[in-house]
Amino acid sequence: GADQSLPQTFLITVNSTNINLFAYPNPFGKNTTFGFTLPAPEDRVVLDLNDMKGALLQRIYVGKSEANQTQKFAFDGSGFSPGIYFLRLVTSNNIKNFKIIMTE
Question: N or C, which terminus of the chain has less Cβ within 10 Å?
Answer without folding.
Answer: N
